[in-house]
Amino acid sequence: RRVLFRSVVILGAEAQTVGVAWQVYQITHSALDLGFTGLALFAPGILFMLAAGHVADRYDRRAIILACYAIQAVCTLALLRFGLHPTGHVWPIYAVLLGVGLGRVFSGPASQAFLPSLVPKNHFVNAVTWGAIVFHIANIAGPAVGGLLFTLQLSGRLAGWNGAPIVYAFSLVTLVAFLLLVGAMRTRPAQVVKNAFNLKTMLAG
What we know:
Strand content: under 5%
Mean pLDDT: 87
Oligomer: single chain
Number of helices: 7
Radius of gyration: 18 Å
Structural class: mainly alpha
């Protein structure tokens, strides 16, 4: 069940990336500004990669996952607001993308380390295999779903949701569903290492 919901939330994240890119290009018509969307998502990974791994080792992993995906849900809600009420500026979008990237960089190590708490040891290899398959399928299908949703033409009262807003709404639904699932999960206690938070422990991995 977790694998299924994780695939859906990855699908939503990849679709959202497409929606953001199209929205930024519609505003600026600049390939450089379009490239900055990827940089805004990637930059937190460069800055906080080591700290994210250390946090996943030191603190409760489910709490980290819930906090990170809640941050991403709030950021997606902000993108939805920008999509429904465009300002003509892209810097607020970049700021929100930095928040999304921050949530992703801290949720990644915690999600990987969380798996042993969910499945028995004899099913662990199978779970990892299925998780990898689902991850790659969602990564491939996500941009296609985002493109289809972006080009969807709604009419009547929903006409204002055409383009990026409908993509963001889809992503928000997947994030909320994933948060509810993870919050309802019962997990086996995991051993958490309480090492000091310093450069030496961060570089130990």
